[in-house]
């Protein structure tokens, strides 16, 4: 199914073809190269992260390792990004906030379950899987909790599995952003070599490519509006 502009009837692909002429060929090629390794097979959930440094560093890791979607739960703490740490990574990702009334953790995790994700909670106190042993045979959402207390009891209860990073020191847990980076680096390396269908579908690639072009081109919305008027006029030459 192609996403269509409700006014002009143009699909994402047509808009991408038009907008690509407003960026350099090198820039457009970079977009295509990055998209080849983007995935929604793996995603992460950040529950009540309150330190902007951790929130921002986690986004950088997602961008670096090809994770497109980040699900953000804000029951108690507002998720804030430090631009000096994120280095613009957030604009290349889909940050999904949950705003419906109720427990945002329950709403988010139920949504992911409905989308076919297995929920894997990160916890140093559970002895289930490690980054090397976690099966990658189905879509997986990695759950990360707040800096002091970790995931909430409801998140742990709703999880399908648990994963821990083996450690041998006195400190029992890693910084959240470090944990995100370690797990994503390990799991994506395994995923890329696996037979899983982890790549984005063509429709998803076009949607994301259009998103990247729109935010990279100065005046992109006006350019699209002008194209809409032109297409509408061509379809109604007598009006």
The structural class is: alpha/beta
Overall pLDDT? 87
CATH superfamily of the domain at 39-193: SPOUT methyltransferase, trefoil knot domain
Helix share of residues? 40-55%
Order of helices and strands: HHEHEHEHEEHEHHH
What is the end-to-end distance?
31 Å
Examine the secondary-structure arrangement and name the CATH architecture of the domain at 39-193: 3-Layer(aba) Sandwich
CATH third-level topology of the domain at 39-193: Alpha/beta knot
Overall 3D shape: elongated
- What proportion of the residues form beta strands (DSSP E)? 5-15%
CATH class of the domain at 39-193, named Alpha Beta
Question: Can you describe this structure in just a few lines?
Answer:
The protein is α/β, with parallel strands linked by helices. The chain has a domain at 39-193: SPOUT methyltransferase, trefoil knot domain (Alpha/beta knot, 3-Layer(aba) Sandwich). The chain has nine helices and six strands.
Provide structural commentary.
It is a single chain. The protein is built from nine helices and six strands, in the order ααβαβαβαββαβααα. The radius of gyration is 20 Å and the shape is elongated. Helix 1 crosses helix 8, helix 2 (25-35) packs antiparallel against helix 8 (202-216) and helix 3 packs parallel to helix 7 (176-193). It has a domain at 39-193: Alpha/beta knot (3-Layer(aba) Sandwich). The protein is of the alpha/beta class. Helix 4 links the parallel strand 2 and strand 3. A six-stranded parallel β-sheet has the order 3-2-1-5-4-6, sandwiched between helices.
